[in-house]
């Protein structure tokens, strides 16, 4: 019997990472506070998941100053978008019962 969850990506198992990638798939360069607010997260929780996704190369982080205020924004990389689409396809197959 074929492993029906083999196509799922472990990096997206967590609901926070799933949420981050969902936001970045439909928006380019989303700032820290927007992601934090949309997902109702603490600073530390968001930062740890962002760090994990950055290490995999699935997102890129840009830090800059706007006036005198720091601003951190995030964007899904082409590799991250491809991996996330593959994960969603695997979820869809799982839900439909196709292996």
List keywords for this structure.
4 helices; 99 residues; alpha+beta; 3 strands; 3-stranded antiparallel β-sheet; Arc Repressor Mutant, subunit A
Average pLDDT figure:
93
Count of separate structural domains: 1
How would you sum up the global shape?
elongated
Estimated share of beta-strand residues: 15-25%
The CATH topology assignment is Arc Repressor Mutant, subunit A
- SSE sequence, one letter per element: HEHHEEH
- Biggest sheet features: 3 strands, antiparallel
CATH secondary-structure class: Mainly Alpha
The number of helical segments is 4
Question: Can you put this structure into words, describing what you see?
Answer:
By secondary structure, the protein is α+β, with helices and mostly antiparallel strands. It has a single domain (15-94), classed as Arc Repressor Mutant, subunit A (Orthogonal Bundle). 54% of the residues lie in helices and 18% in strands. The protein has 4 helices and 3 strands, in the order αβααββα. It has helices at residues 15-26, 32-39, 43-56, 78-96, and strands at 30-31, 59-66, 69-76. Strands 1-3-2 form a 3-stranded antiparallel sheet.
Write the layout of secondary structure elements.
Elements: H1 15-26, E1 30-31, H2 32-39, H3 43-56, E2 59-66, E3 69-76, H4 78-96
Antiparallel strand pairs: 1-3, 2-3
Could you provide a short overview of the structure?
With 99 residues, the chain is an alpha+beta fold. The chain is 54% helix and 18% strand. It starts with 14 loop residues before the first helix and ends with a helix.
């Amino acid at each position: 019997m074929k492993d029906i969850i083999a196509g799922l990506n472990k990096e997206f198992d967590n609901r926070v990472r799933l949420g981050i990638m969902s936001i970045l798939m439909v928006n380019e360069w989303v700032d820290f506070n927007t992601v934090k607010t949309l997902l109702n997260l603490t600073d530390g929780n968001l930062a740890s998941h962002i760090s994990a996704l950055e290490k995999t190369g699935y997102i890129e982080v840009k830090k800059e100053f706007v006036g005198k205020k720091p601003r951190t924004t995030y964007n899904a990389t082409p590799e991250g978008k491809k991996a996330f689409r593959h994960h969603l396809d695997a979820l869809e197959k799982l839900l439909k019962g196709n292996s």
